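Convert to structure. Protein one:
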Amino acid sequence: MSRVSIIIPTLNEATSLGRTLRCLQALDPAAWEVIVVDGGSEDKTVEIAKAAGVPVEICDRRGRSIQMNQGAKVATGDILCFLHADTWIPDDLIAVIQQTLADEKVVAGGFIALMAGTQTTRWGISLHNYIKTYYAPLLFKPHLFVKGLRLLFGDQVIFCRRHEFWECAGFDENLPIMEDGDLCLKLVQKGKIRLVNRIVQTSDRRVAKWGSLKATRIYLYIGFLWGFGASATYLKQFYEDIR
């Protein structure tokens, strides 16, 4: 079976990383390797990863695209899986990924992200994010939607074959956000992108900080402006870092 490398970009993720790594320890079958790529955390993120026996790559430049590319460069698996430090996965993740990419027509995939916190499940925003996977490409790139474009975001645990990732030049390191959408636009030139009918759970910390209405407005605003061609550098001002 194909070997799956899991790459986790981190920056001050001490609150979430431990739980994510415990999920990874429960994987059956196990991942080929897990690599944490840290962008200069000032908390105990690196210590938590090392205590769990996970190798840590220190990146001298911050940025999710930069860090994920660095992880991909050192990864040795056939498949790359990009996992956020605040996203929790099912124990059969590896088998699901292998089965999905066993179809040679499928170039990449991701999961349905259920956004939740300690006391709340964000059903409305989670549903919208699910629907957006389909309506965004249908609305803005209908010719690519027909070819199999589905717009995936990082909290959906994007995975693809390593050689096809690099044939597309990986993530664009000049993009401060929307690097995942940009990768989808490149990968669909090689095959279909599939949304797997399985759930991963991701932290609602951004929605908890902003509130549901503000978060929905920001997500829609960024999504529509990006669809109409606004630069990711401009859009980043509306998407503050929250840890």
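Protein two, convert as well:
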Amino acid sequence: MNARLSSCLLTLALLAGCQDQPPSTTLQGDPERGRIALAQHACRACHMIPGLTGPETHVGRPLTDLAEQRFIAGSLPNNQANLVRWIRDPQSIDPHTAMPAMGVSERDALDMSAWLLGPQK
């Protein structure tokens, strides 16, 4: 095989590997621990959350369909990493948000996001 043909084949092979891949649907974290953390951090005081009991509140948006939303907080692409960022420090993303920083640990935020983005309960 000549060098030019080899170069073309190599380029085509590399380009084939660069095709858009769908985002991973595998969530990290423990959803059951996330459900418990959502209750411990009193998230239900402001949000309707599937699988959690509490008052019927309308302060924050309902989180019943969070996995179906395109954006978090109106501007962040909806994925687990961004949801963890939002849960941990919402003011760093939107300084005017009413959502308070609740002192949620990285682990708890990961678990909470696994519950919120997982199959609805």
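Residues 52 and 83 are 19 Å apart (CA to CA). The first strand starts at residue 71 and ends at 72.
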